[in-house]
Batch of 4 targets.
Target 1
Amino acid sequence: MTPPVRVTVLGLGLAGGRIHVPTLQRLPQAKLVALCDPDPVRRAGSWPAPVFAAWQDALEVSADAVVVATTPETHAELTAAAVSLGRHVYVEKPMAATVAEGVALKHAAAAAGIVLQVGFAYRFHPLWRSVRRLLDRGWLEPRMVARAQFTTPGGEGRREPVFDVACHHLDLVSWLTEQRALEVQVSDGGAVGARWPCAAQLLGRYQVGPPTDVVTLSDGRRQVTVDRLRGWRLRGRPSPPVPALVLARLARSGMEVSFTRALAVFLAAVRGGDGVIDGAAGPADGIAAIAIIDALRRSVVTGLPEPVAMV
């Protein structure tokens, strides 16, 4: 019997404490061995593994993998430290603050034979996987327009929606089209536009508000709508409901299956690849996301479309 993957989680805020730790507890292939957060309030209470204030102390505990869910400016340093110890890493986005840091992490992980997965978990949502199948079958063409609305509550662990959540949709369109975005533009009211070489476009609005994540994709012939938070099937095409989503909605559990599937894929890769599902975001995707965020920041200043660096 294959032993569980021993996992250390760095950061016990919104992502680490409220999502990754409970998710890993539910996965039998994982065993939490150490947790870390510098905030004594977060460290207080009942946790399923020893809790440390310093990440250096947490990494001294023998482990196979590390989940980095700290503040974004620390991601590169902690990921590099974990890789240097031979630990596989699941790092929340952005994987680093700069493209140069991301490239360095990519090379270090490759040289060490380390699994480095970036936390674009929505690629594993059943409805987005269904959209990918529609593209693979030719029912929907890559030359499409994605009209999106993504609102998220403000508060702890959340930054400006244009930078914090728009990158999810930008990553999803890049994953669907298998292309990198050419340029992005930020306008008033959290509006973001982007285009890809295949003529795909994203027209989205990203604001603080009651949780909403709805995207309608149209190629001029056919149209489907993904409601990640409330939908249990694609709208616009006859398709069966997704049982896991139906149960989650009926139970009002708030369960986000994307994170469970993303972490399960990561653990499978760490254990040797059995059952790995295609589509996980790797270092190259993480670097592309950093380049997109850089372009978004430039566009906020200029108000103009800004090219995304090709790296």
Note: The two ends are 42 Å apart (CA to CA).
Target 2
Amino acid sequence: MVLIPFLLCWGSFLNVLSHRLIRGVDIVFQRSRCPLCQKNISWFDLIPVFSWLLLQGKCRQCRGAISALYPFIEILTPLIMIPLILWTPLRYIPAYFLFFSALIVTIRSDIEHLLISRFVTLFLIPVGLLLSSVNALPITFLDSLIGALLGYGFLLAIASLFRWITKKDGMGQGDLELLAFIGSFTGIIGCWMSLLIGSILGTLYGLLCTPLSKKTSVKIPFGPFLSFGAISYVLWQQSILNALFGF
């Protein structure tokens, strides 16, 4: 029971991390502020999920709308962390907890800003390599290294081909670095499976939501789909491999 409140609070912290990393704001010492009126938020208005619901998604002071991404991330965090803790061997939990936390930050920032901070992707690739080398991940150092290189190189080839054909950018640099980060924590197979699952989820979303939009051109962030692909692979790795390859 103690785990759920802790994870809700951790989700709240990841919200703050996502918001401030993109804007270059101090993470440690600056108090939480309303993004609209910039007034400090009292502690009793920072209770995960409940404060947002009690205030009906509005700032207590300026009554401006507060994004529903805040409670979404706070709820998402225990939804994926609890299965991780229950289903994963103890020795791998710290590494995957860090991995999932970085992916949650990525999901939030890419949905809101179409931007992915390198602090939670590119800069964590050496951490994935290190963790794999000390058996804190169920992959070897070589698997981690090739997974990172493969993830970046494959998306770079696709992005370059798309740009050559259409003369437009179809994929951001952040997506390339994100898949490289995913590869460093999940290895070669994890990198491919995350890309496969993410592509399927992204395609389904595009087919369902784009016709409903009034805009002729809709930018769809790929980062959240890659992130959910990686999360799905880690949580249901054996079931996915059994279904696709029979092992």
Note: The chain has nine helices and no strands.
Target 3
Amino acid sequence: MAGALARLGLRGDVREMPESTRSAAEAAEALGCDVAQILKSLVFRAVREDAPVLVLASGADRVDEAKLAIVVGDDVERASGAFVRARTGYAIGGVPPVGHDDAIAVYMDERVLAHEHVWAAAGTPRSVFTVSPADLVRATGATVVDVADA
């Protein structure tokens, strides 16, 4: 992951944690930060296109699938573990916001931008890195949207 970050001009410090950081709550506890500073990388499936959609959201928020469907222009559903692995190269719980096997549409919920930095998965359920949301938008080409559940 460190190589992918460097290629994108991101200076994220990758940390291997002694305990699982698979959930936002686990990651926040392990890092000693607020759960809102944990960046969830959630993969959805655009139904008609059978395409992956990556949503970057605060660990404190849930994604409203109806709002996401409007943004994407297609019905969406939570992707299965097999779909996530096949389309990103990573397992659920360790999906990073960058470094996927194939190009993927990326959306960042606007609430993430309220933080100076966030912690994101770095490819495994025990590894994380820190990054500024603005740098992540530039590196991923993410579209900033409002998809959090109100």
Note: Residues 2-145 form a domain with the YbaK protein fold (CATH 3.90.960.10).
Target 4
Amino acid sequence: MLEEAPANFDGHILDLDGKWVLPGLVDAHVHSWGNAGPTFQEQQMLPTTGTAKRMLYSGVSAFLDLASPEDYILNLRNRQRSRGFLGVDLYAAGGPLTHPNGHGTQYPGSSTRTATSPREARQRMDSLAARQPDVAKLISNPNNDRYPSTGCATMEAGIEPPQTHELTTVVHAETWAAMRQ
């Protein structure tokens, strides 16, 4: 049933009879920098701003970036929050913690933090927390033939600083074994 708009209403009224209205969608795992455009041609590689426009067009009103270069994505996020220019809400992890030569280090411009000991993991994640990301990301790939993985003690130590700084922690795990670990 259509109600009359208040007398002082100055907005645009849409007739949505027979249509669907959905809340904005949230994509909780995005690699927003360097995505190929709609036709997947090399010359269409999109920066985060291009990805954000396409996501908004598709109904995504917020996303969590888990793999863009740290300075780039955190600076863009900060500008977006102060100016609101992307049209979507951008959340970002910054650089993930992984093993030297581990998954994530193979990408050009990667901002991964690497650690081989619990002490190093705490230091790397304290430095990330100082950048005030929205979440902290760690990468665990035990039994992966392509990339070495951070051991359990180092991984556990890497989770401590984000918890101390009240950051949500997410873990990239490729197998059920990695998830159980």
Note: Residues 130 and 165 are 9 Å apart (CA to CA).
